[in-house]
Amino acid sequence: MQTSYIKRSDTWVDIDQIYLKDSGIWKEVSTAWVKNNNNWNMIHGNGKLEVEFLVVGGGGGGGASGSGFDPAGGGGGGGGFRASAGVAQTSGGNSSPESPLSLTMQTSYTVTVGNGGAAGSSSAGGQGGSSTFATVTSTGGGAGARDNTSGGNGGSGGGAGGGATASNGGSGTAGQGRDGGDHNPPSGNSGSGGGGAGTEPANLDSFGGHGLNSDITGTIVAYAGGGGSYGGNGRSGGGDGGYVNFCGASKTGSQGTDGTGGGGGGTGNICAGGGGTRTGFRGGNGVVIFRILTIFKATFSAGLTTTLDTTTVPGYKIYTITSGSGTVTFSYA
């Protein structure tokens, strides 16, 4: 790490902290500029840097019907959504954005991107994997239920399965997402949509819950939406629900979108006799995105898939991590 010095009583000492006075208030900063012989030079202070972040868990997998004539499984819940102020208007569950992280240079921090939950095969889907950046962890989305059962808990909850049994959506995690849709009282073939980071599906609603937007990359993108069920649309990266109807109609569902943490679509059979496909759709992989001032740089260990954008947002380096697990270390550029 680069070290700066000042001269005190004819002795050079290194700088531990730098304070600047702003509107009468002293604030600690990590860097400042000083003019020496008509040249501006940067000095470095406490070895800290401020990091803006977005961390989204993997979406839950969509559920599926069992054997014979069965209603649809529920949609997978969106992955947990946590964001700092400046990159999103709200954090998950419509909570207040968090403070940017204050991290120490030359210290290793964990980075993990959660995979999407597995598709249900005549069963509930799988819960999405959690994503972590330093001290921030976003829980994976809840599993979409099999027919006649309740959805799984997660960042946002998985949707309840359709059928003759009253069932509930899974619970979302506070500060990360919303609950999955309920199926209560029981009514018809449709399962309920998975919860999103922004909204919870209404009771008996086959559409997935809305996610939340972030412009951390310089472009507004929706993340962490819930998957649909029984032909209902997913939202904000969530997959559509599907069905197979041997009485003459069908709709192919879809998986959650990778890099958004969207939940996978649920599916089912809706004609007497059943048969055919009984597989839901997997959840979308999560993502970790952070941005730092251009005077800093990030160095990653093996095992992470990363991209760097230095042009879209002036003055910032934007790092996007789309898969893997490893560490990151910060230093001056």
Task: Tell me what the structure shows.
- With 333 residues, this protein is an all-beta fold.
- The chain folds into two domains: 42 residues, no CATH class; 283 residues, no CATH class.
- The chain is 0% helix and 32% strand.
- The chain has no helices and 21 strands.
- The strands form six sheets. Strands 7, 8, 9, 10, 11, 12, 18, 19, 20 and 21 form a ten-stranded antiparallel sheet that branches. The chain has a three-stranded mixed sheet with strand order 16-15-17, with no helix packed on it.
- Strand 5 and strand 6 form a beta hairpin.
- The N and C termini lie close together (10 Å).
- The model has no long low-confidence stretch (mean pLDDT 86).
Number of helices: 0
N-C termini distance: 10 Å
What's the main sheet like? 10 strands, antiparallel
Count of folded domains: 2
Number of strands: 21
Q: What would the average pLDDT be, to the nearest integer? A: 86
Sequence stretches where pLDDT stays below 50 over 5 or more residues: none
Q: Whole-number radius of gyration?
A: 24 Å
Structural class: mainly beta
Which bin fits the share of residues in helices? under 10%
Strand content: 25-35%
Order of helices and strands: EEEEEEEEEEEEEEEEEEEEE
In one word, what is the shape?
A: elongated
Oligomer: single chain
How do you describe this structure in short?
By secondary structure, the protein is mainly beta. The chain has no helices and 21 strands. The protein has strands spanning 5-8, 11-14, 18-22, 25-29, 31-36, 39-44, 48-56, 81-83, 101-104, 109-112, 131-133, 136-138, 212-214, 221-223, 242-245, 249-251, 267-269, 287-293, 296-300, 304-309, 316-332.
